[in-house]
Amino acid sequence: MEFKQELTRCQNKIEAYLAGCFAGRPDHAALYDSMRYSLLAGGKRIRPVLALEFCRALGGDEDKALPLAAAIEMIHTYSLIHDDLPCMDDDDLRRGRPTNHKVFGECMAVLAGDALQSAAFESVLTADLSAQQRADAALVLARAAGQDGMVAGQVLDMEGEERGLSLEEIKQMNALKTGCLLEGACLMGVIAAGGSQVQLEAARTYARAVGFAFQVRDDMLDVTSTAEAMGKNVQTDAVRGKSTYVSLLGLERCQQVVLEQSQLAKDALAGIGMDTSFVCQLADHLAGRSN
Length: 291
Ligand code: GRG
Prior knowledge:
By secondary structure, this protein is an all-alpha fold. Helix content is 74%, strand content 1%. The protein has a two-stranded antiparallel sheet. A hairpin with a 2-residue loop joins strand 1 and strand 2 (97-98). Helix 10 runs antiparallel to helix 14 (251-268). The radius of gyration is 18 Å and the shape is globular. Geranylgeranyl diphosphate binds at residues 43-44, 46, 76, 79-80, 82-83, 88, 95, 150-151, 154, 177-178, 218.
């Protein structure tokens, strides 16, 4: 299997599924337009790719994992819409387009985010899986997104703008803000495949290391890349005076951390009875990503 081909196949499958999620709904047209505007604006689809590929690597039926993969992308998209609001980061560019509130107004952007969050749980709870798998996946998603997961990370981020964070606090913030959803994605893939507890724990270790590397790389790209390549404004951390991995460790050490964490991720999957080739190559791909 050629890695790039498989990545594109998987991304296309997710795009097609997401495009069908809110199609043909005549009611509350403005709300649906706002939800679809951000959900279908592109993006790398890393989280749903992880969900499908963990399912596939464990011998599961990836079509059954699609509603779970879509759910994680809906939660991710809601978080981006809310993060860009004037009361949060006040950004005007996301996924190469004006942010949701710039097009639909602040109230509709809040509501589109809210509705995407509810739709995510609806997607999990109506998936063609056993009742136990649906319940397990919903619990994973709730914990990843909620008050001890992504939202907690966003709170730490806000607090950090006031006082500056230590390296340990930044690690904690990113583990919550970025890592939790990536972890949720991998775990849902394992759940959809009916994987074992050992496989769940290995996926968790992989996801935490990939999440760490992903965020360090994101901080590096905020300094070294362009708005055109990233589809969002860059140099934002420095402008806001935020401490980041780059400001605390420097670019060179950051690159080492990315490579170390990617290796840790790959090592975590050895000997657990799954086809690791794609997800290991994905860890390397993300370590070298340019957007
Ligand atoms: C508002 C509850 C709430 C949470 C916001 C996810 C988040 C928390 C904020 C978004 C801003 C940010 C830089 C988060 C760190 C995680 C991250 C790098 C998100 C961007 O993910 P990508 O690169 O984006 O996968 P695409 O557009 O490719 O999906």
